[in-house]
Amino acid sequence: MTTELLLAAAKGFLFVLATMLPILNPAATAPIFLSMTDGASAATRTLLARRIARNMFWLMTGSMLIGSYVLDFFGISLPIVRIGGGLLLASVAWRLLGATPSTPDSRAALAEAYTPDHAHRQAFYPLTFPISCGPASISVAITVGVSLHDVRMVLSLARMGGALLALALIGVLLYLAFRYGEHFLRLIGEAGTAVFLRLTAFILLCLGVQIVWDGVSELLLEVMSVPTHLVAA
User: Fold this and answer.
1) Mean pLDDT across the chain
2) What is the pLDDT of residues 72-110, one digit of tens each?
């Protein structure tokens, strides 16, 4: 049983890490953060990086943990959520695959109106939302949280535990990318950034297709089981 729980936690960890990291993408967000905090001291940037990472963790955790209950309240079935979330993942991945390094991010428009004087007040908005994690990442987090559920409560808890560890790791990566963004970008260069985005986008596309397939399979099984229930009735 212990081995099964460890495997469930490991699967939850890897699944969330592979799914959420390309969406949140600290390496791609770091240049926007640096631009929006231009002129701020190193201490201010360090404080902001820590606050943004913490805000991201709690925002994504809340989406994963209570998102499914919100869906139950509105009567949305899990297969439909998987299909919708998978299509969203695939759509984001397709845009990332087709993007060019010179294409401006839509979130960069917020950078023009940002000044260092507003740094502390705007640690959550807009630096955390929607710069670091926007509506797309929140929707994906809800979908991922639903996918981690299992009929056995113990396995669900193990998967969620692994998912929270993955979010904590992403939070650390986000902090490091923002705190040492200048050194990071100088290290990998423009070519390395482009390669990184393409690889993560391809992984994201594959995960989106897999989630859609899981949802379609469940819907097909439900449709095929309808005659059996009618006969039994």
Assistant:
1) 79
2) 788 877 788 778 877 877 887 787 677 665 445 544 444
DSSP the chain: -HHHHHHHHHHHHHHHHHHHHHHH-HHHHHHHHHHHTTT--HHHHHHHHHHHHHHHHHHHHHHHHHHHHHHHHHT--HHHHHHHHHHHHHHHHHHHHH--TTSPPGGGHHHHT--GGGTTTTTTTTIIIIIIS-HHHHHHHHHHHHHT--SSHHHHHHHHHHHHHHHHHHHHHHHHHHHTHHHHHHHHHHHHHHHHHHHHHHHHHHHHHHHHHHHHHHHHHHHHHHHHHHHH-
Look up the pTM and report it: 0.69
Rounded CA-CA distance 104/143 in Å is 28
Largest CA distance in the chain: 72
Q: How far apart are CA 139 and CA 142, in angstroms?
A: 5
Instruction: Give the torsion through C-alpha atoms of 212, 216, 217, 220, to 10 deg.
Output: 180
